[in-house]
Amino acid sequence: MKPNEGEQWDGQSEVKKLAILTGGGDCPGLNAVIRAAVKTACHRGIAVVGIQDGFRGAVEGDFRPLEPKDVSGILPRGGTILGTTNRDNPFAYPTWVGEERQVQDRSAEVMDRFKAEGIDALIAIGGDGSLSIALEFAKQGLKVVGVPKTIDNDLMCTDLTFGFQTAVATAQDALDRLHTTAESHHRIMILEVMGRYAGWIALYAGVAGGADVILIPEIPYQLRSIAEAVQRRARLGKHFSIIVVAEGAKPLGGDMVVERTMSGRTDPIKLGGIGAKLAADLEKVTDMETRVTVLGHLQRGGSPIAVDRVLSTRYGVAAVESALAGDFGMMVALQGQDIVRVPMAEAVHKLKQVELDDPVLNSARSMGIKFGD
Ligand SMILES: Nc1ncnc2c1ncn2[C@@H]1O[C@H](COP(=O)(O)OP(=O)(O)OP(=O)(O)O)[C@@H](O)[C@H]1O
Ligand SMILES: O=P(O)(O)OC[C@H]1O[C@](O)(CO)[C@@H](O)[C@@H]1O
Ligand SMILES: [Mg+2]
């Protein structure tokens, strides 16, 4: 559905007070969404409360009013002024009962608190996990609008999540820098980027940064194929190669490299180390010096680039407009040039991975970039 983006709402809305929270890993553009939502709501006489640290604050009652003065100057700022969490699911919330730590369903408390505070609707800015929680609340009767956040760009039903393009720009900058040192030293340079189950950052950064090999979770790699690509380049007089590897990439028949597991999270696996593994394996078969850079949270921090500021702003405005229009259980999304509303259930039912016929992937293949298959 096309929600007539930017049209002034002149109807009557039952919504007088909105709550807003940010959940999951942080991401450039979170503050831009908050700012746009607060400005849009206040412009229409709607009060806004911010919930601290995602759903933790919803359980603990950690709320604060948000007025236009509270969002002044936050457009370019990374992170989220509201704080966020990867844990703290109210439907399975760790709670101390005396000496014993129990996991309890605290969702009813959240519903009661929202009612007591006079909150009519919630804008939940998050990835698949946070939006899945929001959807559970929607099933209990809470009026919810979702905003698609994640640098990984792995949410269904939207062409882009905000933050992704900034993460790609950061990775591309790293690749530009790695190129010059790789060429000078005749080395293989490996850049490990984020992307647990989807290789969007690796694919786009690899294309933008001129990588020779891109390894993504969707295409299990064979060492032989990567070594051949590097050696073929050397035979052509290019004695260096650039490889981008997503943290979730794995060899054919092998497993992802897990750095450690962390309790209290739905997905307890913390990935990391595929770059180092690949470097060790490649040095053995190519006899070329290889170095690894793990970009890590540099991809998540810092100021959003212009396109993400615009996208975040459009999402923030659209989320408030959806609430004012009484359109709940929906996620705002970018489809083509338009901001639309899609059912949250459709957006979170599976992850959006890179398809094997993805046009960007095909273009990369056409110009000789290898994917390790
Ligand atoms: N499928 C799911 N259903 C319900 N809750 C989930 C699900 N996946 C994750 N969660 C919970 O959602 C919260 C946030 O999840 P997660 O850390 O994956 O963030 P996210 O919102 O998905 O953003 P991102 O993955 O981009 O960081 C955690 O408390 C986690 O326990
Ligand atoms: O270091 P954290 O916060 O646990 O999260 C790391 C994960 O978050 C993401 O950046 C976003 O979901 C993933 O790509 C990465 O695996
Ligand atoms: Mg998630």
From TrEMBL:
<keyword id="KW-0418">Kinase</keyword>
<dbReference type="GO" id="GO:0061621">
    <property type="term" value="P:canonical glycolysis"/>
</dbReference>
<dbReference type="InterPro" id="IPR022953">
    <property type="entry name" value="ATP_PFK"/>
</dbReference>
<dbReference type="InterPro" id="IPR000023">
    <property type="entry name" value="Phosphofructokinase_dom"/>
</dbReference>
<comment type="function">
    <text>Catalyzes the phosphorylation of D-fructose 6-phosphate to fructose 1,6-bisphosphate by ATP, the first committing step of glycolysis.</text>
</comment>
<dbReference type="InterPro" id="IPR035966">
    <property type="entry name" value="PKF_sf"/>
</dbReference>
<feature type="binding site">
    <location>
        <position position="128"/>
    </location>
    <ligand>
        <name>Mg(2+)</name>
    </ligand>
</feature>
<feature type="binding site">
    <location>
        <position position="291"/>
    </location>
    <ligand>
        <name>substrate</name>
    </ligand>
</feature>
<keyword id="KW-0479">Metal-binding</keyword>
<dbReference type="GO" id="GO:0070095">
    <property type="term" value="F:fructose-6-phosphate binding"/>
</dbReference>
<feature type="active site" description="Proton acceptor">
    <location>
        <position position="152"/>
    </location>
</feature>
<feature type="site" description="Important for substrate specificity; cannot use PPi as phosphoryl donor">
    <location>
        <position position="129"/>
    </location>
</feature>
<dbReference type="InterPro" id="IPR012829">
    <property type="entry name" value="Phosphofructokinase_III"/>
</dbReference>
<protein>
    <recommendedName>
        <fullName>ATP-dependent 6-phosphofructokinase</fullName>
        <ecNumber>2.7.1.11</ecNumber>
    </recommendedName>
</protein>
<keyword id="KW-0067">ATP-binding</keyword>
<dbReference type="GO" id="GO:0016208">
    <property type="term" value="F:AMP binding"/>
</dbReference>
<feature type="binding site" description="in other chain">
    <location>
        <begin position="194"/>
        <end position="196"/>
    </location>
    <ligand>
        <name>substrate</name>
    </ligand>
</feature>
<dbReference type="GO" id="GO:0042802">
    <property type="term" value="F:identical protein binding"/>
</dbReference>
<dbReference type="GO" id="GO:0005945">
    <property type="term" value="C:6-phosphofructokinase complex"/>
</dbReference>
<feature type="binding site">
    <location>
        <begin position="87"/>
        <end position="88"/>
    </location>
    <ligand>
        <name>ATP</name>
    </ligand>
</feature>
<dbReference type="GO" id="GO:0006002">
    <property type="term" value="P:fructose 6-phosphate metabolic process"/>
</dbReference>
<comment type="similarity">
    <text>Belongs to the phosphofructokinase type A (PFKA) family. Mixed-substrate PFK group III subfamily.</text>
</comment>
<keyword id="KW-0324">Glycolysis</keyword>
<dbReference type="GO" id="GO:0047334">
    <property type="term" value="F:diphosphate-fructose-6-phosphate 1-phosphotransferase activity"/>
</dbReference>
<dbReference type="InterPro" id="IPR012003">
    <property type="entry name" value="ATP_PFK_prok-type"/>
</dbReference>
<feature type="domain" description="Phosphofructokinase">
    <location>
        <begin position="17"/>
        <end position="321"/>
    </location>
</feature>
<dbReference type="InterPro" id="IPR015912">
    <property type="entry name" value="Phosphofructokinase_CS"/>
</dbReference>
<feature type="binding site" description="in other chain">
    <location>
        <position position="247"/>
    </location>
    <ligand>
        <name>substrate</name>
    </ligand>
</feature>
<feature type="binding site" description="in other chain">
    <location>
        <begin position="150"/>
        <end position="152"/>
    </location>
    <ligand>
        <name>substrate</name>
    </ligand>
</feature>
<dbReference type="GO" id="GO:0030388">
    <property type="term" value="P:fructose 1,6-bisphosphate metabolic process"/>
</dbReference>
<dbReference type="GO" id="GO:0046872">
    <property type="term" value="F:metal ion binding"/>
</dbReference>
<dbReference type="GO" id="GO:0005524">
    <property type="term" value="F:ATP binding"/>
</dbReference>
<keyword id="KW-0963">Cytoplasm</keyword>
<dbReference type="GO" id="GO:0048029">
    <property type="term" value="F:monosaccharide binding"/>
</dbReference>
<keyword id="KW-0460">Magnesium</keyword>
<keyword id="KW-0547">Nucleotide-binding</keyword>
<feature type="binding site">
    <location>
        <position position="25"/>
    </location>
    <ligand>
        <name>ATP</name>
    </ligand>
</feature>
<comment type="subunit">
    <text>Homodimer or homotetramer.</text>
</comment>
<dbReference type="Pfam" id="PF00365">
    <property type="entry name" value="PFK"/>
</dbReference>
<feature type="binding site">
    <location>
        <begin position="127"/>
        <end position="130"/>
    </location>
    <ligand>
        <name>ATP</name>
    </ligand>
</feature>
<comment type="pathway">
    <text>Carbohydrate degradation; glycolysis; D-glyceraldehyde 3-phosphate and glycerone phosphate from D-glucose: step 3/4.</text>
</comment>
<feature type="binding site" description="in other chain">
    <location>
        <begin position="297"/>
        <end position="300"/>
    </location>
    <ligand>
        <name>substrate</name>
    </ligand>
</feature>
